[in-house]
């Protein structure tokens, strides 16, 4: 049996220095090559799960573990997780004034390579990689010269996230509400970008609260998230059922 | 006359003696009467020199011919060591001479009185034509611990374009340096004036820059506060001709218990003049950065546009950035704005960069550089930009 890309076992998480528990026993196994969707209403802990996976500070794991390709993910710093092949596409990508997007991309790619003990990319090699990936996502060169995410439209920000994902070739992509703030055209471009990256060696965790995105990025499995844990799992039909019946049917609380 | 009764510190007594020895009796008496500026004097509220300047070398710097370490490729170089002009390149269109420092009347600011009273020589630079290559004025303070006072006066002909880069360096570990610089920017002239401090760690430095701007003059300045224990740069600008514009910028990078103070006094005395101030401070440990900016708009100085911005980045809990803007506006048709921000590195931005594989230290340095980018982007002089970049690198490396 091959090792799953991601195994979350009985994960309990609270906000550091507060009593507020957010995740209350998450169990989830994501085999290599599969795309799983996590659906849940706002405040159910979906984004917290994505932050804990990516290594954001401010959360405390009180119980349980996360294995990333068999290794203890929680032992790793955020940058080490990225170098090991974990990528989080942010719901709200952060604006970083004063850092040109191109400069950032180069720093990030080379930092990961360095952590993995690989040689830095040569400039022409890097330029070509970026150009090809940018074209596919209909990203103009001009956007790459601008400071990272500064003044980008919602669609541009999300496309920039997928561009990074394409360049970094992660083993695990966590997409946090990637559809939020996208119109239909942008949604299609972003989804195409994501689908293009589907691969037998790459898994994806798609977090969303609308079924709509799943028409474009078709998941192998769907997990319903409520009050900090998975309450129901099924195939993609579950997403449609959820859309029809609403979350209350699954978590027993009114919206 | 009101009788001041001040119990002088040893440092004050010593400085008064030095003034007397330099023949500046009035300045010496004023210092004995008032002592050094302290926190109850508004301009020095955050830089209380009765507390901060307790230990002062007992002698004025002696003649010394050590050459500067800091070099700028292709610049015309003027070297001032321990207050004396020791070398000046031949620069076409520029006259350089050293004169006896003219006696100055005594004012209320004891630091300025010290500057004027202790300076033995006045280096006079006259720029008659536009210059292809910048002028580098290297101020060197060398030898045993001592007090030095440099004085430079620059005048320009109408319409000339030139760049002056000053560096302050020296191995004088506990040295006390006064430097007085005056630049008269003639009508239609365009000047860039940069000051980079490269002092020894324990150095104390007081600088005053006075700028006069005539009709349609254009001035850009940049000063750094990074290498000293205690430093204050007092910038005074006087708009004397319509259509003049000036950009004042400052870079502060302090750590340990360093204390740096930029105090500006920008006087828009005539109509239709514009100015900007951009001061950025990064502090860590228990360092303290001060920015005081005063803009005065005279009653008939209509259409003045003066923009002041001070931004601080605090990298440690006990580091401080103190900001005091003051606007005195007596005209009614003016645009004046002041802004100040102060904060820590953005944790969300750090996380974002780290989530892309960038190590925390590198992510921090990217954000710090980004914070400073504006200062660098505006600086067209490449060698200056490189030197500033090196400075930031060294500072970041030292802090790690």
Automatic annotation (TrEMBL), chain B:
This is Fe-S cluster assembly protein SufD. The lineage of its organism: Bacteria, Pseudomonadati, Pseudomonadota, Alphaproteobacteria, Hyphomicrobiales. NCBIfam families: sufD (TIGR01981). Residues 142-371 form the SUF system FeS cluster assembly SufBD core domain. SUPFAM superfamilies: Stabilizer of iron transporter SufD (SSF101960). InterPro entries: Fe-S_cluster_assembly_SufBD (IPR055346), SUF_FeS_clus_asmbl_SufBD_core (IPR000825), SUF_FeS_clus_asmbl_SufBD_sf (IPR037284), SUF_FeS_clus_asmbl_SufD (IPR011542). It comes from the Bacteria.
């Amino acid at each position: 049996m091959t090792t799953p890309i991601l195994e979350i076992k009985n994960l309990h998480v609270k906000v550091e220095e507060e009593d507020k528990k957010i995740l209350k026993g998450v169990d989830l196994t994501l085999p290599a090559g599969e795309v799983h969707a996590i659906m849940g209403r706002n405040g159910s802990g979906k984004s917290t799960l994505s932050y804990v996976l990516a290594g954001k500070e401010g959360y405390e794991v009180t119980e349980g573990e996360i294995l990333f390709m068999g290794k203890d993910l929680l032992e790793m710093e955020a940058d080490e997780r990225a170098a090991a092949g974990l990528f989080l596409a942010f719901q709200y990508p952060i604006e970083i004034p004063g850092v040109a997007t191109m400069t950032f991309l180069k720093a990030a790619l080379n930092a990961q390579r360095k952590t993995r003990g690989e040689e830095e990319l040569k400039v022409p090699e890097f330029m070509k990689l970026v150009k090809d990936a940018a074209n596919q996502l209909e990203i103009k060169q001009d956007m790459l010269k601008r400071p990272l995410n500064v003044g980008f439209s919602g669609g541009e920000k999300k496309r920039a996230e997928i561009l990074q994902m394409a360049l970094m070739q992660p083993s695990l992509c966590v997409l946090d509400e990637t559809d939020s703030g996208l119109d239909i055209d942008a949604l299609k471009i972003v989804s195409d970008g994501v689908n293009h990256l589907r691969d037998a060696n790459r898994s994806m965790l798609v977090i969303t609260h609308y079924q709509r995105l799943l028409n474009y990025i078709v998941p192998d499995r769907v997990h319903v998230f409520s009050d900090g844990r998975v309450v129901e799992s099924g195939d993609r039909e579950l997403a449609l059922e959820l859309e029809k019946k609403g979350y209350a049917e699954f978590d027993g609380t009114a919206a | 006359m009101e009788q001041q009764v001040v119990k002088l510190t040893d440092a004050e007594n010593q400085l008064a003696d030095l003034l007397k020895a330099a023949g500046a009796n009035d300045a010496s008496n004023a210092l004995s009467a008032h002592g050094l500026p302290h926190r109850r004097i508004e301009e020095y509220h955050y830089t209380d020199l009765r507390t901060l300047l307790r230990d002062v070398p007992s002698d004025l710097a002696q003649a010394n011919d050590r050459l500067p370490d800091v070099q700028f490729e292709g610049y015309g170089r003027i070297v001032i060591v321990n207050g004396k002009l020791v070398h000046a390149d031949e620069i076409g269109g520029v006259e350089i001479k050293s004169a006896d420092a003219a006696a100055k009347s005594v004012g209320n600011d004891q630091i300025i009185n010290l500057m004027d009273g202790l300076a033995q020589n006045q280096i006079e630079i006259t720029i008659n034509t536009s210059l292809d290559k910048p002028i580098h004025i290297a101020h060197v303070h060398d030898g045993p611990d001592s007090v030095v006072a440099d004085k430079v006066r620059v005048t320009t002909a109408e319409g000339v374009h030139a760049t002056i880069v000053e560096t302050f360096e020296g191995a004088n570990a506990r040295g006390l340096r006064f430097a007085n610089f005056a630049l008269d920017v003639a009508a239609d002239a365009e000047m860039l004036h940069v000051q980079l401090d490269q002092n020894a760690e324990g150095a104390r430095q007081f600088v005053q820059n006075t700028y006069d701007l005539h009709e349609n003059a254009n001035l850009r300045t940049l000063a750094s506060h990074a290498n000293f224990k205690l430093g204050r740069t007092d910038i005074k600008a006087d708009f004397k001709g319509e259509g003049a514009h000036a950009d004042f910028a400052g870079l502060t990078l302090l750590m340990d218990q360093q204390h740096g103070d930029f105090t500006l006094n920008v006087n828009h005395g005539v109509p239709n003049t514009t100015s900007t101030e951009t001061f950025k401070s990064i502090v860590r440990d228990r360092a303290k950065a001060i920015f005081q900016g005063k803009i005065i708009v005279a009653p008939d100085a209509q259409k003045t546009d003066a923009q002041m911005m001070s931004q601080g980045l605090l990298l440690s809990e006990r580091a401080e950035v103190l900001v005091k803007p003051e606007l005195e506006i007596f005209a009614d048709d003016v645009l004046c704005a002041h802004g100040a921000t102060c904060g820590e590195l953005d944790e969300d931005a750090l996380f974002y960069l780290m989530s892309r594989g960038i190590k925390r230290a590198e992510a921090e340095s990217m954000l710090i550089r980004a914070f400073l980018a504006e200062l660098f982007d505006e600086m067209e002089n490449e060698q200056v930009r490189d030197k500033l970049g090196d400075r930031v690198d060294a500072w970041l490396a030292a802090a790690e």
